[in-house]
Structure formats: structure tokens, C-alpha cells
Write a structure and sequence with these properties.
CATH superfamily: Flavodoxin domain
CATH architecture: 3-Layer(aba) Sandwich
Helix content: 25-40%
Distance between the termini: 9 Å
Oligomer: single chain
Shape: globular
CATH class: Alpha Beta
Radius of gyration: 17 Å
Number of strands: 7
Strand order of the largest sheet: 2-1-3-6-7
Order of helices and strands: EHEHHEHEEEHHEH
Number of domains: 1
Structural class: alpha/beta
Length: about 200
């Protein structure tokens, strides 16, 4: 499969970088064609300008500011998000990427008539994977509702193929993690992605 890895972490030497490298290597070893988009490294601007918002629904015009990123999401069959969960949600740069790149007429089609819903336009995406770290423990993350997980595995998933499969791999209690727990997590990620 053509796998797009979208990575969001501002610190190059973070544990997140080790997770990213593990993900890219495991997917490559499994025979997938892998592209990496490191949002911080490319200096992606997550802020939607007033002009972008004014033209958000204007087909073609809304694609111009982020044409390179739109090409990536049109190319992929598998979407893999690698990021730290902060405040139970997505880092701002990743949320901004969704806001600016997943635009009408690209990611979804607007309703044709009153009373209709939007229609998915990313049906070439057949798998969505989230690989994340969470400072909180499992039960607290669940209690809060895991908004980042829901955004990607429910919200973005609705725009993908009807039979799109999902996978969520999290290292909880990252704030009190040990070298051993982090090594176990990387092994788990490698093994799970090798089976995709």
C-alpha cells in the first residue's frame, strides 16, 4: 500500500522521533511504499488565514495554499499519524494540517441539496493508523474521551473507504515512562505494523 506517515513533534531528539523512525522502518520492511511528512521540519503553518477561510468552499482556490499536502493525501491508501497526545488531543500543528488540507471538494463533497450530509471523497484510503504517546494513564484518557483519537479514527475515518480499517497504538503514562516501557512500546509498534 501507499502509506503516508504524518508526523508532528517539534523536538528532533524526542522519543516521538524514535517512534516515527520505527513506524517508517516497519512499514518499509512490510513492503509498503512510504512517504513521510514531518510537519514541524517542513515548517508547516497550521494557521488558516482569513483569505483561506473566505475561499474554504471555493473548489480549486481552496487547494492552492496547500497543494503539496493535498497531493500527498490523494496519493496514499494508508494514513499513519504519529504524534504526542497533549491535553488529550492533537498537537496544534496537526489540527491545523487537518483544517487547512482536508478541504471541501478534496476530502469531502458538499451536500447537493438541503437536508443532505457531506459525502466522503477519500475512499482510496483503506487504513488509518494512530501511533501516539499520552502523558495520562489509560482510564483517565478514556474518561476525558480521547478527542484526538476520535477526530482521526471517527472524523477522518468517515471520509475514507467504507471498509477502512483502523489501528490505535498508544504508550500511556508517558510522563512516568521508563527506558524499558519505551522499548516495549517500540517493539509493539514494530510488530503490529509488520502485520499490515
Amino acid at each position: 500500500m501507499r502509506a503516508l506517515v504524518v508526523y508532528a513533534h517539534p523536538v528532533p531528539e524526542s522519543f516521538g522521533a524514535a517512534v516515527r523512525d520505527t513506524v517508517v522502518a516497519a512499514l518499509g520492511e512490510a513492503g509498503h511504499d512510504v512517504r513521510l511528512v514531518d510537519l514541524n521540519a517542513i515548517g508547516f503553518n497550521p494557521v488558516m488565514s482569513a483569505d483561506e477561510r473566505r475561499h474554504h468552499f471555493d473548489q480549486g482556490v481552496n487547494e492552492v495554499p496547500v497543494a503539496d499536502q493535498i497531493e500527498h493525501i490523494k496519493w496514499c491508501e494508508m494514513l499513519v499519524f504519529v504524534y504526542p497526545t497533549w491535553w488529550y488531543g492533537l498537537p496544534a500543528i496537526l489540527k491545523g494540517w487537518l483544517d487547512r488540507v482536508w478541504v471541501p471538494h478534496v476530502a469531502f463533497l458538499m451536500p447537493a441539496h438541503e437536508g443532505q450530509n457531506i459525502r466522503p471523497a477519500m475512499q482510496h484510503i483503506r487504513r488509518i493508523v494512530v501511533v501516539t504517546t499520552c502523558g495520562a494513564n489509560w482510564w483517565l484518557s478514556k474518561w476525558v474521551g480521547e478527542p484526538g483519537r476520535r477526530t482521526l479514527l471517527r472524523g477522518i475515518r468517515t471520509l475514507a473507504h467504507p471498509l477502512c480499517k483502523t489501528l490505535y497504538l498508544a504508550h500511556y503514562k508517558m510522563d512516568s515512562s521508563t527506558p524499558e516501557s519505551r522499548a516495549r512500546y517500540l517493539t509493539k509498534v514494530r510488530k503490529r505494523l509488520a502485520r499490515l
